[in-house]
Every structure is written in C-alpha cells, then in structure tokens.
Amino acid sequence: MTLAKSQQGKIPATVITGFLGAGKTTMIRNLLQNADGKRIALIINEFGDLGVDGDVLKGCGAEACTEDDIIELTNGCICCTVADDFIPTMTKLLERENRPDHIIIETSGLALPQPLVAAFNWPDIRSEVTVDGVVTVVDSAAVAAGRFADDHDKVDALRAGDENLDHESPLEELFEDQLTAADLIVLNKTDLIDAAGLKSVRDEVASRINRKPTMIEAKNGEVAAAILLGLGVGTEGDIVNRKSHHEMEHEAGEEHDHDEFDSFVVELGAIADPAVFVERLRNVIAQHDVLRLKGFVDVPGKSMRLLIQAVGSRIDQYFDRAWAPGETRSTRLVVIGLHDMDEPALRAAISALV
C-alpha cells in the first residue's frame, strides 16, 4: 500500500490515555466543541462490549468531528491488537479523500500507550502521521484517596515468603505505565480535593516517573485545544525510552495479557426513580469493589436518556441526549472490575435494584 503524501506534511495525532474514569471522554468532548475550526478524526478504544464513550462523543454535536469521523474499536485492548485493528483503521483513515487536520486516539482505560505509539513507526504510517504528543489524564481524587498506591511494606513482607508474588498490583503498574508514556499530564478533577490533597497528588505522580513531563491541572476535563494540540513532540521517535512494565516483562520472557481485568454488561428495564436507583447502586459498587461502571438508563416519561458514570462509589449522572426515533429504549450498564470479581453475584445485585 502506498499513501499519497499530504502537501501540508504529516498529520499530527494525539494519544489520550489515563485510567478508567479519569475523565478522558469528557476532556475530548470539550476539545471537540472548541476545536478552533480543525477537522478532527477520533479513534476510540473501549474495554467491554458496550460502546458508551463513542456514543457520548457522537452525540456531542461538534462540527469539528462528525459521526463519520468517529471510529470505535471495542473488540479488545488496542495495545494488544495493534496489527489487527489499529494499523488497518489508520490505513483506511488516511485513504479518505477528505483527510483530517488532526487525529485523536482515546485509549481504553486499561491500555498501555507504549505499543500503540510504537505502531506509528510502521513505514506507511510513519510517512504520513506523527505523534504530536501523549496526554495522560489523571483522576486526582482517586490518587489522593490512595487507589493506585499499595502498602509496600506489607507487600515486601509477604514477598519475602513468596518470591513469585508480584511487587506491584495491576492498578499500580498500569498507572505508572500511563504516566511513563506521557508528554503532558493533566491532573483532572482537582475541584474534588483541597490544596493539601492536590500537593500530595503532584508529589505522588512525580515520584512514579523518572522523566519530568509538563503537569497541568483541570476541572471537568476543561483544557484548551491550544494546550492539548500542537505539542509537536514526535513521540514515536522516543517511545523506546519509555518502556512499560509489560514490555520489560516481555524482554524477560514473560507474557502480557489483561487477565487482571474483566467486564460484563447488565441489561435492565426502565428505572422509575433514578435517584433511588443510583443511591442503591452506590452501595452495590462499594460492596463488590467495582472499578468502573457506565451506561445509559431509560427513565419513563423522559424523552432523554440518562447517562451514568461511576468511578468507585463516586457516581455522575445527567441526561445527555434525546432518544433517537426508532431507537430501542433500554437500560444497559457495563461493569469493569478485577478478574476475580464475582460476576453472578454482582449481576444479581444490580438486577435486584429494579
């Protein structure tokens, strides 16, 4: 395959990464609505079978990114399916007659940015596209609450009796991997913590990485397009120096997969009282240690669907758009947790809320 060279040079691509619920989709939605006339193509990779983020962004109504410019990859983690999914997707995108001014890639909250960025060194892609920068979004409230920090003294004590025990949890490793790849770190949701909490988050993030990428603060994912786009880093040329834990494990002969995490979709009927439902759902999430829950709720008598997004026991909800003509009204929630979560019990607990 030979792609025609753009007269304006390579198309810049921004990779936006960050853990589940950090606020990536909200930040991208804000960006699309304030894109300063740029035509943007968006590639979204979600973990789980329900494409919530893609649906939210398709409904944002931004002229910068029409529904035809939004491509969803929901059949796995993009870092594991680069050859099968990402490269063919990029090829088709670049073969379009009306090519974008900028490409934004939102990774799954469980994805490693490193393999994805390395894929931009694929010859036919490298000649056409450059990685403008990797933006890592951090949930400041979650970091302040210690969600990504293990008790290392306890782990070291246990490890002394079992050499096969991993030193770091899957959450902690992934958090560090996403930070390691960053050219820009966005400390999001700073409105949910105080000044002391913010300082602790800055210190915690800085302690996780050897490099010193720019770190900025944000509320509700509100970051100007001029800050997110136009970094001009060319990250594909330096990604070899930003190895993830899994890449280092590969070099040591160990296999990489995402068996640490799992997801499933719960389908329910209409929810007559969403306030009561959300409060009860909060209790279920806390009891079962759910990492992330998101989806859409059918509220009788309402012409719009209710979007629910939960990070731990923190739940946001709002009516995002009207149900489309002919669209089946239903309540569908995707639940994401560690691989050992009790799916039957959790599914039954959520179903019992209706």
TrEMBL record:
Domain of life: Bacteria
Pfam families, A to Z: cobW, CobW_C
An individual GO BP term: cobalamin biosynthetic process
Catalytic activity: GTP + H2O = GDP + phosphate + H(+)
GO molecular function (one): hydrolase activity
CDD domains cross-referenced by the UniProt entry: CobW-like (cd03112)
CC terms in the record's Gene Ontology section: cytoplasm
Annotated function: Zinc chaperone that directly transfers zinc cofactor to target proteins, thereby activating them. Zinc is transferred from the CXCC motif in the GTPase domain to the zinc binding site in target proteins in a process requiring GTP hydrolysis.
Gene3D superfamilies with a match to the protein in the record: CobW-like, C-terminal domain, P-loop containing nucleotide triphosphate hydrolases
Cited SUPFAM superfamilies: Hypothetical protein YjiA, C-terminal domain, P-loop containing nucleoside triphosphate hydrolases
InterPro entries, sorted: CobW, CobW-likC_sf, CobW-like_C, CobW/HypB/UreG_nucleotide-bd, P-loop_NTPase, Zinc-reg_GTPase_activator
Residue ranges of every copy of the CobW C-terminal domain listed in the record: 261-354
Similarity comment text for this entry: Belongs to the SIMIBI class G3E GTPase family. ZNG1 subfamily.
Lineage, uppermost ranks: Bacteria, Pseudomonadati, Pseudomonadota, Alphaproteobacteria, Hyphomicrobiales
Official protein name in the record: Protein CobW
Claim: Chaperone is one of the keywords in the record: yes
